[in-house]
Amino acid sequence: MTTLNSRIPEGPIKDKWTLYKDKINLVNPANKRNIDIIVIGTGLAGGSAAATLAELGYSVKAFAYQDSPRRAHSIAAQGGINASKNYMGDGDSNYRLFYDTVKGGDYRSREANVYRLAEVSGNIIDQCVAQGVPFARDYGGLLDNRSFGGVLVSRTFYAKGQTGQQLLLGAYSAMNRQIARGKIEMFNRHEMLDVVKIDGKARGIIARNLVTGEIERHSAHAVVIATGGYGNVYFLSTNAMGSNATAAWKIHKKGAFFANPCFTQIHPTCIPRSGDYQSKLTLMSESLRNDGRIWVPAKLEDAKAIQQKKLKPIQIAEENRDYFLERRYPAFGNLVPRDVASRAAKERCDAGFGVNATGEAVYLDFAAAIKRYGTEQAKIKGIHDASIEKITELGAAVIEEKYGNLFQMYEKIIDENPYKTPMMIYPATHYTMGGVWVDYNLMTTVPGLYCIGEANFSDHGANRLGASALMQGLADGYFVLPYTIGDYLADDIRTGKIKTDSPEFDEAEESVKKQLKFFIENKGTHTVDYYHKRLGQVMWDKVGMARNEKGLKEAIVEIQEIREDFWKNVKVPGSLNEFNQELEKAGRVADFLELGELFAKDALEREESCGGHFREEHVTEDGEAKRDDVNFAHVSVWEYTGKPSEAILHKEQLEFKDIELKTRSYK
Amino acid sequence: MNLTLKIWRQKGPQDKGRMVEYKVTDISEHMSFLEMMDVLNESLVAKDEEPIAFDHDCREGICGMCSLQINGEAHGPDRGITTCQLHMRMFKDGDTIYIEPFRANAFPVIKDLVVDRMAFERIQQAGGYISVNTSGNTQDANSIPISKHNADLSMDAASCIGCGACVASCKNSSAMLFVAAKVSQFALLPQGKVEAKDRVKNMVFQMDLEGFGNCTNTGACEIECPKGISIENIARLNREYLAATI
Q1: ipTM, 2 dp
Q2: A381: buried, middle or exposed (CB in 10 Å: 19+, 13-18, 0-12)?
Q3: A293, A338, A563, A615: the active-site residue
Q4: Which residue in A385, B21, B24, B193 is a FRET match for A313, CA 20 to 30 A apart?
């Protein structure tokens, strides 16, 4: 049986990474070119890893299901990337970034990994600037920062509301440089459908060419999974339509343990859903909470009138508004962490104070910010006795400069002008902290199989802070994996090319083909989306923002029923050897139907509330999450044994040596 | 609302392709255009017909995967958005909507509304990068001050999403706006100056090789660009190219 060894190096936390790097094995440059590495997924983590590994001299094959690495969903990240540069001089440091991340994650992440993340965060900014990423600057030409939820400093670097786009295009450009040099072989419109293990080690993959339908074998000395999170298990999420868990789930079934699947982030500021036809949800950047104030009517009758469209928000007087985050959390106000903000919004809406027809929305209001900035601008411009109209005009211009593209996006979807009336927002699934278990080297429980970025579980505990996903993706890809993978590959310099005509490849290809053939020949009665939507509904209702024992037990049974129905009655049109989008979806939903069950099982087993995981049985008197450090200060690590219901639980005990375990308070 | 859709169907690159008529009913004005396409596809699968292939992914206007020429316009009738951000409130009951793939010789059709934009990839690979190593041995980020004005202009150019609307809108199928966006992003930054001459020459060379047409200053690309990339970037590209070749 595989035992968990997190391989955390000895030594004081500040020196662990440096000392460790000094001692690990390296591969000689001449040998690197004889070593093949497969990277699946080309977002921030996969793209930066592929570029750096190629630059070091390895032969890299990179795979993306889209038509270009630039389409990966990292591109949609809006707000920014954290780094402990302390350019603002507000007392930031590596330790503070480390502390905020561990606390923000509700003390369920690994200290050593998080410290390393903070330590390399500054390098990321240096690297990206050298690469030509056009970060926002002040008039002196230096880099500008803003503030994000859950912290008391400004450490977030940004490029308008398109930071993810600019960072991904940076990694993409680094990849292009290596593709041009012939060091990366890029496989666009390809999807990995299984991993191939030889003698217990990851030695290759089976992939489908999504244009021709051809099944391909690719071998390598190591395989890196960088395929993002599994938020689409909810059907509706802020993930891209194609974001999926197939690579992560396939490796789980081949021996990679899966950690904390129930730790999922429900992001507070998303555009509320409008109808059953809805295909996805759209995020409004957390940066909006710097200037927007969140509220609902204080009186139930006002809320009812708003729901029936008899009253407009601007008609509600200041004293009749409930700024519930400012009321409950005076120290952090509207900038509490995401899990806290989401639950507070749900609590108000459940109590009947929601502000749209479905009762599932709260206001995000910029009127106060517009007035504040407008007054400031009037003063700067020397306008005395400025009229309210003039102040509003000046203030709106400042808001437009900061958030213009987000406001435009909102207006296109909702058809209301957020400069004039408050935005409506509601929480939606956004990010998954859980994922494939990895050790300090980012290696899974399968030798030679690595997992980086959102796809792994390592750095965010039970809740991720804003602007930390980009940081982790790039840290893993640029600065961590390229070093740690060498330690493993140093033993492989004499192995030579891995052959793809082995029985292991035969077997993996056979099983992939069998499943694809089944889908096409099944000729069932319901479409893939029908099952995906049913699964999503169960997940949202029973494994969503608030969970309880009864609901979770029901969810497990219901997911099993949906899965059984799916394998009997799913209908996939078209044929195998062609561009077939329904066939692609079928395989992904099949995996979500298994992952969803493990997710619910994990949520049921974790008898505490922490971060994004909120169990209604475990609440303090004032309604806050109640953690149980005595029984649950561990990572829940699941081993696949044939069925999600029979998964075996392993525990990685978390040790807190540099941070005191205490109740998270943002009051 | 009820709509008539005339959609381009093409089995594969070798197939000739044709417009096929479909009817959709009870479409909500709050739906996005692609959600309307989802509704149509679900009904086609239910009737054992093959659904319409179209590219899409993020559905929030940033990945650049979605395309579609709608009533003759790239990304449809609205401005400053991609197809996935287009909402049905832009249409009215009884409308007939023509839906075609982005058309250009350099963008061959893969199937139905899906086109192959690998030509864009090869142009980026020809020089769309700064040759620094990613291993972190760079100078401190603040040691290179950049005027806010130039940083902002660079950011505007860098916001290109590589969708290909500029090519599809151009009567010459020119990719000048796409190439100009990348060349400008780096030309405006000190980091990009070192290789500026080689970059512009190599990218333009590859652009010509791919079979894109030339720019004749019509300006359709700028109007249809979902990110509003300014045609001034093409002027900058021309200046950079001239300076690099004399």
Answers
A1: 0.98
A2: exposed
A3: A338
A4: A385
pLDDT at A401 over 90: no
Q: Could you tell me if A70 lies within 8 Å of chain B, comparing CB atoms?
A: yes
Specify the amino acid at residue B72: G
Q: Which of A280, A406, A534 to mutate to test the interface with B (most CBs of B within 10 A)?
A: A280
Averaged pLDDT score across all residues of chain A = 95
pLDDT of A13 over the 80 cut: yes
Q: At what angle do helices B148-158 and A163-180 cross, to 10 degrees?
A: 70
pLDDT at A422 over 70: yes
Backbone angles phi, psi at A375, to 5 degrees: -60, -45
| A539, containing H or E segment | helix A528-542
Whether residue A287 has pLDDT greater than 90: no
Record: contact A277-B31, CB cut-off 8 A: yes
Q: Which of A241, A267, A481 to mutate to test the interface with B (most CBs of B within 10 A)?
A: A241
When pLDDT is averaged across residues A14-43 and rounded to a whole number, the result is 96
> Under CATH, what is the fold of the domain B3-111?
Ubiquitin-like (UB roll) (3.10.20)
pTM summary value: 0.96
Q: What is the DSSP letter of B106?
A: T
A640-664 pLDDT tens trace: 999 999 999 999 999 999 999 988 8
Active site residue A338: yes
Q: Where are the domains of chain A?
A: 16-265+430-492, 267-429
Q: Check residue A513 and give its pLDDT.
A: 98
Percent of chain A topping pLDDT 90: 93
pLDDT at position B138: 75
Q: What is the C-alpha to C-alpha distance for residues B27 and A146, in angstroms, rounded to an integer? A: 42
> For residues A414 and A591, what is the distance between their CA atoms, to the nearest angstrom?
33
**A243: closest CA of chain B, how far (Å):** 8
* Pairwise CA distance, residues A361 & A365, whole Å: 13
Residue A240 in contact with partner chain B when CB distance is under 8 A: yes
CATH 3.30.43.10 fits A16-265+430-492, yes or no: no
Best mutation target among A32, A74, A133 (most B Cβ atoms within 10 Å) is A133
**Minimum-distance CB partner of A76 among B42, B58, B132:** B58
pLDDT at A133 (0 to 100): 96
Q: Which CATH superfamily is domain B117-130+145-245 in?
A: Alpha-helical ferredoxin (1.10.1060.10)
pLDDT at A1 over 60: no
CB of A352 within 8 Å of a chain B CB? The answer is no
Say if residues A433 and A264 touch (Cβ distance below 8 Å).
Answer: yes
Q: Which of A125, A240, A275 sits opposite B58 (nearest CB)?
A: A240
User: Residues of A numbered 206-225 whose beta carbons fall under 8 angstroms of chain B's beta carbons: which are they?
Assistant: 211
Tell me, yes or no, if A156 comes closer than 8 A to chain B by beta carbon: no
